[in-house]
Amino acid sequence: MIILDTLEDFQRIYRAGKKWQRCMEAINNLNNILPDVFYSVGDSLVYRLAAGSVEKAGLFEGHRRYFEVHYYLSGHETVEYADKKTLTPEVAYRDESDREYFCGKGEARTLVAGNVAIFENHEAYRFSESSGVKKAILKVTVEETYFLNK
């Protein structure tokens, strides 16, 4: 997991490439969207605004076709993450949902307003506690700018 302190850090480090520009396009549109409704930018990014506490997750969640970017607007949230290789597979990968689940232990970090977290595909994560969280969740395809036809 990559944690950046501010959106400005994110913009400075990840400014090149269409997928990063689309991330900023989505973030710049947050004032115009409804919570918990998915929106898209092109065919390589979907995003939504999430608010409120999350239920403590029992299993780690991992992805293969999308990586996630979480931009925290308010509140705080604790996330535990680990390399998938160090975890035990619990529920096999499903292509339809792009999810797989694991059990085990990881490293915990608390994310706060202003942080940008990038959840990489070689890792899995689970959330353990949150308070007053409002964040943008962006799902970005690992392909460069388009989906491959199956």
Describe the model.
Strands 1, 2, 3, 4, 5, 6, 7, 8, 9 and 10 form a 10-stranded antiparallel sheet that branches. The chain is globular. It has 2 helices and 10 strands; from the N terminus they run βααβββββββββ. It is mainly beta and 150 residues long.
Name the beta content range: over 45%
Q: What value does the Rg take, in angstroms?
A: 15 Å
Distance between the termini: 29 Å
Tell me roughly what share of residues is in helical segments: 10-25%
Contiguous helical run count: 2
Number of strands: 10
Mean pLDDT: 90
Class of secondary structure makeup: mainly beta
Low confidence ranges: 145-150
Main sheet makeup = 10 strands, antiparallel
Described by the principal axes of the CA atoms, the overall outline is: globular
What order do the SSEs take from the amino end to the carboxyl end, as H and E? Answer: EHHEEEEEEEEE
